[in-house]
Structure formats: structure tokens, C-alpha cells
Design a protein that fits this description.
heterodimer; A: 258 residues; alpha/beta; Rossmann fold; 6-stranded mixed beta sheet; 4-stranded antiparallel beta sheet; 9 helices; 38% helix; 22% strand; globular; B: 503 residues; MetI-like fold; D-Maltodextrin-Binding Protein, domain 2; 5-stranded mixed beta sheet; 10 strands; 11% strand; elongated
Chain lengths: 258, 503
């Protein structure tokens, strides 16, 4: 794996997205994400974080502004070619129910006309699943296993950029924790640029190098986890940080009381 | 009963071929249309609305409507396979289209997002994701369409396409219930068999056993291919088609003609149950080679004449006209007349003192008329009313058999009978006189398709029938088939008639 060359940089230039009525979902966002970075986009529901993420692989078309990857406008290439170079993982996974696990994982290679070889087995190893589940159908798997397959499918074509939209949102806490760790390890090992949307500040603080907080379509904080824990980033960010911090303090009190 | 099933294999083959061709065409139209319109709500509404509208048209009417439409287009056969195919195809559209559209609209959005997210082209998404996922739903729609199509195909008999409906219609006309049963059982068996095979294919697709689907579809395809065997049989010129309208006399005469042609070395097929207007069109286009019509029918319907000349002059004028306008040859008259004749129960006629149409007109407001299915729409009825102003308390159309029953049971007081009908004598009916000669002559005439006019072997086989059938013999032959007990088949009555002719 070419970990020595980090993933591409991503830049938003004045991105605005309006849906039919009401205030814009994303309002004039401009920022740059360095190659190899693990960025978390945090915010409450309706803050515009998923919409902003999807402008990168053009699942959402911005009303104004443009996105570039390594300096190249995302609209420069044909859509399928752009998306084949980007790993995409989302909450509902979207495994193809009529295909086996092996066929699901291999599909990005097949549609691009690339050889499959032993990639399926290698990807199952990578996401720490036994190789013998390859012949099963998605319906036979647990939620955590399915999301691991989703990650395997997203990474099978060797993308350098990974977009994750609430990837662990539907999982139980134990699976969530172990899968989060696994994804972070993959990010580091493969030298990816990873952008993850989450509403869980604790997850963001534990996994990301850089945390962007969104509210009402705007970036209201752009800090490192350390800075956020130290109280930086303003009221909106600190309100989100206060939740895991409060939980941790209460847990400490419970422990002390015993 | 075994006799009733004799024609089942041949007709079932034609039936299957027609229904499967319509189903295939329906799939070929509905599936792409469904994919195209599924994500265009306005287009989907229009397409489904049209398909639903088609379903509200009675299938018999839908078939009948294609006849004038194809005539108007011109250059294509307006009878037989083509109109049946088009009508049944329209009929097959709705269930397939509806299932494609609802199937696609009901796909899990996450799966579509994933397909887009991994960079599928639109075509890859169709082929690799949407098509396999909606396939079981679409298959269910195809099964529904198959059952509907096979059922409705029985009605193609009325536009001159042989099907299992031939047995049902012939059986209904001659009250030969074994024939009706044979047609119904065979059509139902065909529908169940195709449905079961399609069900097997659907099961195979659902359970990822593709070979099972291929085997099931392969059996249907092979059966349809085998059913089409008569089409690629060579030797067209020795095969002749004898037409018949939808009543016993026509079935008997068609068999009589067919037997003579077979004896002359032809291979004979029958197109039974043709409507009056359809039959003449069929002989003009060559879809049938020969059939028996009646002078007055051509005179009033095709030539739109209202005058009533002497019978020989009328037949000569008709021969001129059919030759000149449609190149159809009138070979000659058979010797008897089958005219419209108003008939009443003898006792009732005596009681009311009715002997002529004049008497009838005077009493008409108190009487109920039972007619055959077409009479009330025919120019003869208009001519009768012009000559004898009559207004019945009630006028009800019946199929011929039930018309006589209605008269016998008193539900009708007077009926539009046929003068060659055996039941007139058997039921002791009084035929009312026509002093003003409003009803034209109805000599039975042999009409021959253009391509057979110069076929000496063909016309030679039929000439002995000219002038050979007396009205008494025809009545008796008709009664053998029409009576309620000890019924003869049209074939047996034709044999009896052939012996009487003795030529």
C-alpha cells in the first residue's frame, strides 16, 4: 500500500446549496482539507453536514460554488469516473441484496472493467471478517458485519479519498467502537484522506485530526480535538463537546461513589 | 365427449401461439416503457392511465375495434392473427407496466444511492441493480398478463383467428355443451400450465436458481415454437380455408364444402364464427377461400341497396358488384333461401288474428320482439319499419338458439326467425307474410376468393352443390344440429346432407 503518498486534498469554494424553499442547507462554505487528513464534520440534524459531504462525489449538485480534489474541479471528469476514485460509506450501507458478499465487494472493480483476482479475500482480511462469508447474501449478516462489507466495497478499488456519512449511526455501541477503531487504522495504514460526517462529538474527538462543526449550513468551528477539549471553537462547538464531557464526569462520579 | 376434444390440439396450438406472441409483444413494450416512465411521475400516470383505460374496454369490443382501424390503415390484414395480436397485446400491457413501475418506485433508496456512490453508469445501474431487483415483481405481472391473455384469446374467434374459442362459440350456437366444455377446459388448462411454468421461473429467480427459470421459460418457448409448426409447413396452394358465420347452417355448409374440397385433394381448414361484415371482408382479402353468404345480406350491408328486385336479378347484380369492386366470384346459388322471417307461435297468432306484417304492425305496441344479435342494427329492420310502421313494447336481442327459447317460453311474442330454420316447422311457428315485399331475397350464394377464381379443380369441386340444396333438406339438417335431444354434430349433418344431394 502506498502509504508514503498521502490522499488528495479537498477544497470547497463558496459552496451554497438551496433546496426548494427555506434557508439554504449549505451557505457559502469555503475551506481546504489537506491530503492525508481525517476530518470529522459534526453537527445536529439538518445542519447541512451530509449535504456538504455529498457535493464532493456529486450526489448533491451545489447551487453555487465548486469543489476541487487536488486542485481539479470535480465536474472536470465524467461522473462515474469521479465516483470510482472515491470510497463512499453511508449509514444505510446499501449492499445489493441480490448479490453475494463477494459479488458486492467486487462490484466496483467489475463496473470499472478491472480484474478482481484475490481482492475480495484481501478486503475481507482488511475489514477483519472471515473469508468464508464471501458466498453468503447480505441478509444473512449482522448490522456490524454489513457495515464492514460496506467499508470493504468502498475501498476495493484503491480510492485515495474516503467519504463517510454517519457510517456507524445504526450500530450498537460495542460494534460502533470497534469499527471506528478499525476504520481509523485503515485510514492511517493506507494514507487516505477521510471525511466523516457524524452527529456524535465523542466519535469525532476520538477519531479525527480536525473537527469541523456546522450549524444552519455554516462552519461555526474548525479546530483540532485538543483545542476543542481545551474550550476553543465557540458556543455551538462547546455545546456539542459538553455532552460527552458531562457523560464522562458523571461516570467518574458514579465510580467514585462506589 | 371424445369427439368434442378432437379439434383441441390444433386449436390449442393456434391459441398458445397467439397468446404467447401477444405476451411477448406486451413485455417488449411494457418493460422499456415502465423503466422509462418510473422516474417521470407525469409519464407514469399517463402510461398507466392509458393501460387502465384499455382494461375497461370489454375485450370482445377491443378485438372488434381493431377490424375497422386496420381496414382504415389499409395494406395489412384486418382479420385473423393481426387484429387479435394487437388487441391482446394492449390487454397484456397493464399488469406488466404497473408492476415494472411500482417495482422500480419501491426499490430501497439506499441501494440506488450505493449504486450511484460506487460510480455506476446509468446503464450499469439498470442492468446490474434495478433489473435484477424488480425481476420477481415484473414476473408476477407477466403471470397475470399471461392468464388474462390466454383467457381473452378465446374471443379472437370472432375476428377470424382460430382459437379454443371456436369450440366455445360453436358449442354455444348449436347448444352442444360438450364442445363448450372442451373449449373451456382446454383454455383453462393452457392458462394454468403457462402460469405454473412462469411461477416456476419466478421461484427460480427469487431463490437465485437461474437454471430453473431458464428451464421453465425454455419449455414455454419450445411449446410455442412447436405450436407455430403449421405456419412453416410448405405447400400453401393446396391448403384452403373455409369460412363460416356463427350459426348451425353455416357450420354444416362449411363442412359440406370442406368435405368436397378434401375429396378433391385439398387440405382444409375452417374459420368458424365470423361476423357478417367480417366474413365478406375475409373472402375479399383471401383470408378465407370460400364461404356461403346470403343475397340479401350482401345487398343491404355491402351494397347498401334498399330496393327489392326479383331474386334472380338480385343475384346477378350481386355477382357483378362483388366481381367489380372486390374481385370476389359468386359461383352460384345453393338452391334454398334463408330469409329473415317474422315468426309467432301458431296459437298466439290465431288468437290475435295476425297473418301478415301489416297485422303485426297494428298490434306491435302490445308485443315483445325477440331478435338475433344483429337484426336490430341491420338495414332490413329499418326497411321493415319503413314499410310497416311498428313500435314494439320491448325489443331484445338473443343468440339464435335462445331467441327460439324466448319465443317458446313466452318471453317474446314474435321473433326475427330464419326461413331455413328447422325449428319453424318443429316448433309449429307461423311465418308472417310480407305483402309489401320489404325484405329482399336471401338466396344462399357461394362466394369465392379472388385467388381461387381460376382454380378449376377448386370451383369444379364446388359446382355440384349449386342448386342442389332444397329448403326442406336444409331445414332438416339444421334441425338435426339445433334440436335439444339426440343432437347431431355439424359434421354428421353435413354427411346426411351430402347423401341427400347424392351428387
Amino acid at each position: 500500500m502506498p502509504a508514503e503518498t498521502p490522499g488528495p486534498s479537498v477544497a470547497f469554494h463558496g459552496i451554497t446549496k438551496r433546496f426548494r424553499e427555506g434557508p439554504p442547507a449549505v451557505a457559502d462554505v469555503s475551506l481546504e482539507i489537506a491530503g492525508g487528513c481525517f476530518v470529522a464534520l459534526v453537527g445536529t440534524s439538518g445542519s447541512g453536514k451530509s449535504t456538504l459531504l455529498k457535493t464532493i462525489n456529486r450526489l448533491v449538485q451545489p447551487t453555487a460554488g465548486h469543489v476541487s480534489i487536488d486542485g481539479e474541479d470535480v465536474t472536470a471528469r465524467p461522473l462515474p469516473q469521479l465516483r470510482r476514485g472515491i470510497g463512499y460509506v453511508f449509514q444505510n450501507v446499501g449492499l445489493f441484496p441480490h448479490l453475494t458478499i463477494a459479488e458486492n465487494i467486487a462490484l466496483p472493480l467489475r463496473i470499472a472493467g478491472d480484474a478482481v483476482g484475490d481482492r475480495v479475500g484481501a478486503m475481507l482480511d482488511l475489514v477483519e471478517l472471515p473469508r468464508d462469508i464471501a458466498g453468503r447474501l447480505p441478509a444473512a449478516l449482522s448490522g456490524g458485519q454489513r457495515q464492514r462489507i460496506g467499508v470493504a466495497r468502498a475501498l476495493v478499488a484503491n480510492p485515495r479519498l474516503m467519504l463517510m456519512d454517519e457510517p456507524f449511526g445504526a450500530l450498537d455501541p460495542v460494534t460502533r467502537d470497534s469499527l471506528g477503531g478499525a476504520v481509523h487504522a485503515l485510514h492511517a495504514r493506507l494514507g487516505l484522506t477521510t471525511i466523516m460526517v457524524t452527529h456524535d462529538m465523542a466519535e469525532a474527538l476520538l477519531l479525527a485530526d480536525r473537527v469541523l462543526v456546522m450549524r444552519a449550513g455554516r462552519i461555526v468551528a474548525d479546530e483540532t480535538p485538543d483545542a476543542l477539549l481545551a474550550g476553543a471553537g465557540g458556543d455551538a462547538a462547546q455545546a456539542l463537546v459538553a455532552i460527552p464531557r458531562g457523560q464522562a464526569e458523571r461516570l467518574a462520579q458514579v465510580k467514585a461513589a462506589r | 365427449m371424445t369427439g368434442a376434444f378432437a379439434r383441441v390440439p390444433e386449436l390449442a396450438a393456434q391459441h398458445l401461439l397467439l397468446a404467447m406472441a401477444a405476451l411477448a409483444l406486451g413485455i417488449a413494450i411494457a418493460v422499456p416503457l415502465g423503466f422509462w416512465s418510473a422516474h417521470r411521475p407525469a409519464a407514469a400516470r399517463v402510461a398507466l392511465g392509458f393501460a387502465s383505460l384499455v382494461q375497461t374496454i370489454p375485450s370482445l369490443a377491443l378485438l372488434a375495434l381493431f377490424y375497422p382501424v386496420l381496414l382504415w390503415i389499409g395494406g395489412v390484414p384486418a382479420l385473423g392473427f393481426l387484429p387479435s395480436l394487437l388487441a391482446l397485446t394492449l390487454y397484456a400491457l397493464l399488469p406488466i407496466l404497473r408492476n415494472v413501475v411500482t417495482g422500480l418506485q419501491g426499490l430501497n433508496p439506499a441501494v440506488i444511492e450505493a449504486a450511484d456512490g460506487i460510480g455506476m453508469t446509468r446503464w450499469q445501474k439498470r442492468r446490474l441493480v434495478e433489473a435484477p431487483l424488480v425481476l420477481p415483481v415484473v414476473m408476477a405481472g407477466i403471470r397475470t398478463a399471461a392468464v388474462w391473455t390466454i383467457g381473452a384469446a378465446t374471443l379472437s374467434t370472432t375476428v377470424g383467428q382460430p382459437s379454443l374459442g371456436d369450440l366455445i362459440f360453436a358449442g354455444l350456437q348449436t347448444q352442444s355443451w360438450p364442445l363448450v366444455l372442451a373449449g373451456c377446459i382446454a383454455a383453462a388448462a393452457l392458462a394454468l400450465a403457462v402460469d405454473a411454468l412462469l411461477g416456476l421461473a419466478e421461484h427460480g429467480l427469487r431463490t437465485r436458481r437461474r437454471w430453473l427459470a431458464w428451464v421453465a421459460l425454455g419449455i414455454i418457448a419450445a411449446a410455442t415454437f412447436a405450436a407455430s409448426a403449421p405456419l412453416w409447413r410448405s405447400g400453401g396452394s393446396d391448403r384452403v380455408v373455409v369460412g363460416a358465420k356463427n350459426f348451425s347452417e353455416q357450420y354444416i355448409l362449411a363442412r359440406l364444402i370442406g368435405d368436397r374440397l378434401r375429396a378433391a385433394g385439398y387440405e382444409v381448414e375452417y374459420r368458424d364464427g365470423l361476423g357478417s361484415a367480417v366474413a365478406f371482408g375475409a373472402v375479399a382479402s383471401g383470408a378465407i377461400d370460400v364461404y356461403v353468404d346470403y343475397a340479401g345480406t350482401i345487398w343491404t350491408n355491402q351494397m347498401e341497396r334498399t330496393d327489392v328486385p326479383a331474386r334472380p336479378a338480385q343475384v346477378r347484380a350481386i355477382a357483378d358488384w362483388t366481381k367489380r369492386t372486390h374481385d370476389v366470384s359468386l359461383l352460384g346459388t345453393l338452391g334454398f333461401e334463408n330469409a329473415y322471417a317474422f315468426a309467432m307461435r301458431e296459437g298466439e297468432a290465431n288468437r290475435l288474428g295476425i297473418a301478415t306484417l301489416d297485422d303485426l304492425a297494428a298490434r306491435s305496441p302490445q308485443l315483445r320482439l325477440g331478435s338475433d344479435l344483429e337484426f336490430l342494427e341491420r338495414p332490413e329492420w329499418a326497411a321493415v319499419r319503413r314499410a310497416y310502421p311498428m313500435r314494439f313494447a320491448e325489443a331484445t336481442p338473443y343468440s339464435p338458439t335462445f331467441m327460439y327459447r324466448a319465443l317458446a317460453s313466452g318471453r317474446a311474442d314474435v321473433i326475427s326467425a330464419f326461413s331455413s330454420d328447422g325449428r319453424i316447422a318443429a316448433d309449429k311457428l307461423r311465418v308472417l307474410a310480407d305483402p309489401k315485399q320489404a325484405i329482399p331475397g336471401y338466396d344462399a350464394i357461394l362466394l369465392v376468393a379472388p385467388k381461387r377464381a381460376d382454380d378449376a379443380r377448386f370451383t369444379g369441386a364446388l359446382r355440384p352443390l349449386l342448386g342442389a340444396i332444397s329448403v326442406e333438406n336444409m331445414r332438416e339438417a339444421n334441425y338435426m344440429v339445433d334440436r335439444d335431444s339426440d343432437k347431431a354434430t355439424p359434421e354428421a349433418a353435413a354427411d346426411w346432407l351430402a347423401q341427400r344431394i347424392g351428387r
